[in-house]
Design a protein that fits this description.
Elements: E1 2-11, H1 16-19, E2 28-32, H2 39-55, E3 59-63, H3 70-77, E4 85-88, H4 92-98, E5 109-125, H5 133-142, E6 148-151, H6 157-169, E7 174-177, H7 181-190, E8 195-199, H8 200-204, E9 212-217, H9 220-231
Parallel strand pairs: 2-3, 2-4, 6-7, 6-8
Antiparallel strand pairs: 1-4, 1-5, 5-8, 5-9
């Protein structure tokens, strides 16, 4: 499954000042609904850097985590419609079904473009007793609710992936919601949780130090793509002659 599709959106209706040739005449804010350390923050900072180079302007990344990104969406919806506030958020449709009293609507935004599509992987700590998905599923079935799953927030792509995995595997996790992938990853590494569904960027951030490992990916096709990508990284942790592990092995 697609772990996350992030979209840039502008507050509706640029003013005449923003549409003038002098634009941009001041720094532009890109608001992201997740804290530092996760894929949403990571991609937003890449976007800000590239847009800044293209426009010759300063872009400021502003993190407003919480409520599946709806806090950030509400902030941008209420911002002055002058083209200087941009939102990087892809959870509008999901949040409309999760939260009853949202103070914004789709008409408050103008979509610009899709900026990222990523793979969802399931990861455990590097010192975990589980070395593959089969072992984890067997334990979870024998001990329902005893495995704590770190989630990036209600309605986030990792949360939906976790729910889908539980349904498909016939297991039950105790899910702990965090304000983003960064805090969720920290809980996994600290041992507060035992499993986490994450974007490939979050899951592989500390892989060279073997702090975490991925027993499986959300789908075989996506898993294969993720593994091929990381097999060709410039820095290798094993000799070229060493046999390659298949996805699903430690």
């Amino acid at each position: 499954m697609r772990s996350r599709s992030l979209f840039l959106a502008l507050a509706l209706a640029f003013s005449s000042v923003a549409s003038a040739q002098s634009y941009p005449s001041k720094p532009i804010r890109i608001v992201v609904g997740y804290p530092p350390g996760g894929s949403g923050d990571f991609t937003t900072r890449i976007i800000a850097d590239e847009i800044g180079k293209e426009l010759g302007a300063s872009l400021i990344v502003e993190n407003k985590p919480g409520a599946g990104g709806s806090i950030a969406s509400e902030f941008v919806a209420k911002a002055a419609p002058d083209g200087y506030t941009i939102l990087n958020q892809g959870n509008h449709a999901i949040n409309k079904n999760l939260y009853k009293n949202l103070t914004y609507d789709d008409k408050d935004f103008i979509p610009v473009c899709r900026v990222a599509v990523g793979t969802t992987i399931m990861v455990v700590a590097g010192n975990s007793q589980f070395h593959n998905a089969k072992e984890l599923i067997a334990f979870a079935k024998a001990n329902p609710g005893k495995l704590f799953s770190a989630s990036a927030g209600f309605g986030s792509a990792p949360h939906l992936a976790s729910v889908g995995f539980e349904a498909a595997a016939g297991v039950k996790f105790t899910t702990i919601q965090y304000k983003g992938g960064g805090p969720a990853s920290q809980s996994l590494l600290a041992g507060d949780t035992q499993v986490m569904f994450a974007t490939s960027r979050e899951g592989c951030t500390r892989r060279p130090q073997r702090a975490s490992r991925s027993p499986t990916c959300a789908t075989r096709s996506r898993c294969r793509g993720w593994m091929l990508h990381h097999r060709h990284r410039p820095r290798r942790s094993r000799p070229r002659s060493a046999p390659r592990r298949r996805c699903g092995s430690a």
